[in-house]
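Duplicate of #3305? Posting structure anyway:
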């Protein structure tokens, strides 16, 4: 597995080695030992999966305190724009973000460390999104940031009139008013 650094230290693109032939393909989507050899050690305890249609935007979400999560995210079907925003107070990249296209075709994964808000928007007609977490979901520790905050200046690649949000995501606060750890 190739580990590709992004503009924000700790946010990593993982690119698996894919074995393809006339029958299809095979790759390891996760191997604890391979990651440990790269200096990446996580105790993933929960897997989540979501299916969504074009323009569905989920995020930007995070958990604080003991419930803060590292996520390893990937797309099984379709394509998304995946975004990680640094919300670590005092970080040199505080308020900056990384945006990466993840698709069933490129098979890339994004490692989103603790201390980041995370979200994605579906770019294809449908997408199945899957991710591992190293802490369990805890409602009392959840927080979020409104996806369209001008301070973050994220280009979601989908026209605003085509974006579909949950009721919860519609009322998320701006970046300057999010919860801190």
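Output from current build:
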């Amino acid at each position: 597995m190739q580990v590709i650094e992004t503009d924000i230290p700790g946010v990593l693109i993982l690119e698996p080695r894919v074995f393809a032939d006339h029958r299809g393909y095979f790759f390891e989507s996760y191997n604890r030992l391979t990651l440990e050899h790269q200096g990446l050690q996580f105790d993933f305890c929960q897997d989540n999966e979501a299916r969504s249609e074009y323009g569905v935007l989920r995020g930007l979400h995070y958990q604080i305190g003991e419930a803060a999560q590292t996520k390893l995210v990937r797309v099984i079907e379709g394509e998304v724009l995946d975004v990680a925003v640094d919300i670590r107070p005092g970080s040199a990249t505080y308020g900056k973000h990384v945006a990466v296209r993840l698709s069933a075709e490129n098979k890339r994964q994004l490692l989103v460390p603790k201390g980041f808000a995370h979200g994605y928007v579906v770019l294809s007609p449908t997408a199945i999104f899957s991710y591992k977490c190293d802490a369990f979901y805890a409602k009392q520790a959840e927080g979020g940031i409104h996806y369209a905050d001008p301070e973050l200046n994220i280009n979601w690649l989908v026209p605003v009139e085509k974006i579909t949000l949950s009721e919860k995501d519609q009322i998320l606060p701006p970046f300057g008013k999010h919860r801190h750890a």
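Confirmed duplicate; merging threads. The two ends are 32 Å apart (CA to CA). The chain has a mean pLDDT of 95.
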